[in-house]
Design a protein that fits this description.
It is found in: Membrane. This protein has 247 residues and is mainly α. Helix 1 packs antiparallel against helix 10, helix 1 crosses helix 11 and helix 4 packs parallel to helix 6. It has one domain. It is globular, with a radius of gyration of 19 Å. It contains eleven helices and no strands. The longest helix has 28 residues.
Length: 247
């Protein structure tokens, strides 16, 4: 149905990585703490008003997610187009991407620190709070903001997209990443009080989330370097035979 077969099965593990990376991006120290004020700003009320149900944050959150998804899809398309342009150098492109992803992973594991990744580069959305258009613009600005928390994860998914010559699958990876980041955001807007309580319980484990992200980056980087993504695809199809029926 979806055109997934043994030839392009590398999409399966890559998509799993993208979804997991999206969720971890939401739980990262740069994103999770700012979710309540972002929701309040986009809705045009205070955090207290948000908690009391003065106005639903779901419509604004949906527009925000659409905004960041727009940017991610364009990035995925561009990365895949770049990889297709340099198809004959695909092996070297994958190795270069692998080295870069491993380096970013070691930064998250605190093996060493890269000063550039400790700087935040955010685009201001202007005074657009309380409107659907403002929420969409804020989503665009959030996606363009290369923060130290989501930048390396996004860079990893873009690397996977660039090493896949199929533009549709490369763009699909960024769509899956957007789902992993956007769905928790939408759920937080729908179940505000429960979400805030859960966020408070998760905050003490921010360093653990960062280390998990570092381990994921290193693992994916090493697979890109060694060309083992295809082996992971075969393993997934053998372990979960129902995946073969998607093709």
């Amino acid at each position: 149905m979806f055109g997934i077969d043994i030839i392009d099965a590398a999409f399966l593990p890559a998509a799993s990585v993208a979804l997991f990376a999206g969720v971890l991006s939401f739980l990262s120290p740069c994103v999770l703490p700012v979710v309540p004020p972002y929701l309040a700003y986009m809705t045009g009320i205070s955090v207290g008003g948000l908690k009391s149900g003065e106005r639903s944050a779901a419509p604004a959150a949906l527009m925000f997610v659409l905004g960041l998804s727009t940017v991610f899809l364009v990035m995925g398309f561009a990365a895949s187009a770049f990889g297709r342009l340099f198809l004959e150098y695909q092996l070297w492109l994958a190795r270069l991407a692998g080295v870069m992803v491993v380096i970013m992973g070691l930064h998250f594991l605190h093996v060493f620190r890269i000063p550039m990744l400790d700087q935040e580069a955010r685009l201001e959305a202007g005074d657009q709070g309380g409107s659907a258009f403002g929420a969409y613009v804020l989503g665009l600005a959030f996606a363009f903001g290369w923060t130290p928390c989501i930048g390396p994860q996004l860079g990893m998914i873009l690397s996977l997209a660039a090493t896949d010559a199929e533009i549709g699958r490369g763009t699909g990876l960024l769509a899956v990443y957007a789902l992993g980041l956007g769905i928790p955001f939408l759920l937080s807007a729908i179940f505000v009080n429960r979400a805030m309580g859960l966020m408070n319980r998760i905050k003490p484990y921010m360093k653990t989330v960062e280390r998990i992200m570092g381990g994921l980056l290193v693992a994916v980087g090493l697979m890109l370097l060694s060309g083992r993504m295809a082996d992971l695809s075969y393993w997934m199809l053998e372990t979960f035979p129902f995946l073969a029926t998607l093709g």
